[in-house]
Amino acid sequence: MFKRRPLRRGPHLFFIILSLLILLSSNAYAGFLSRLLESLGIISGREAPAESRIAEGLREALSVASVNAVKTAGKTDGYFSNRLVKILLPESISRYEKGIRILGYGNELDSFVVSMNRAAEKAAVHAVPIFADAIKSITFDDARRLLSRGDTAITDFFRDKTFENLYLAFMPAVENELSNFDVTDKYQSVAKAYMSVPVSGKPELPVLGEYVTSRALEGLFLIMSHEETNIRKNPSARVTDLLKEVFGKGR
After folding, report:
1. What are the pLDDT digits (tens) for 72-86?
2. How many whole angstroms separate alpha carbon 247 and alpha carbon 149?
3. In this structure, are residues 235 and 88 in contact, taking their beta carbons and an 8 Å threshold?
4. In contact, 120 and 87? CB cutoff 8 Å
5. 87-98: b (≥16 Cβ within 10 Å) or e
6. What residues in the chain have per-residue pLDDT under 50?
7. Per-domain residue ranges of the chain
8. Using an 8 Å Cβ cutoff, are 74 and 124 in contact?
9. pTM for the complete prediction?
10. How far apart are CA 131 and CA 111, in angstroms?
């Protein structure tokens, strides 16, 4: 009588199973993956764009958002009349604003605030090539992680990654405009009034160029975040074919 040989579970079985998996993955798994991505909101009933296209799309979204931000902030009253980005008195001065006005320096305070915002508005246009150069740093891995995150995820990531370098590049343009609008002279008048307030232990005043550059750049990023949200939520804001492809016509 012949004995039944046990089933051998060697290399042959492994290759048979692997072949079956490959055959199944071409149809069933691909369909499952598409349905999963669609249910998560990563794609909308369409083929997901390649990673390279996603990266290009995120760079383009940042480019559109940065240009629109500069257009918004760079016009007259772009900072001054926008309560979200208006450059206000430094905190150390605003803390004693009432006392400074009582001393008769109200006009100097008002003129100083206007001149800071005017300088920022004029400097804003210089941010476009600086942003454009920094946007190139967005990688495939960055894009894959950021596409399906929050409404301002791209701008938030970009700000965290590039703020210091953008700040250093943007400061010369801001300082040049501060000079053109006599902001430094106005600041000296305000500083004199500040020192006249009869209170001990007042904090030191910030360096003017550093303060205005920081506030101006923060304002641009805030406007950019609103532009990103618009691109994500409003199909009409996707003004290029690439933005439509990556963010989806119905997303």
Report:
1. 999 999 999 999 999
2. 12
3. no
4. yes
5. bebbeebeebbe
6. 1-4, 7, 13-47, 249-251
7. 51-247
8. yes
9. 0.77
10. 30
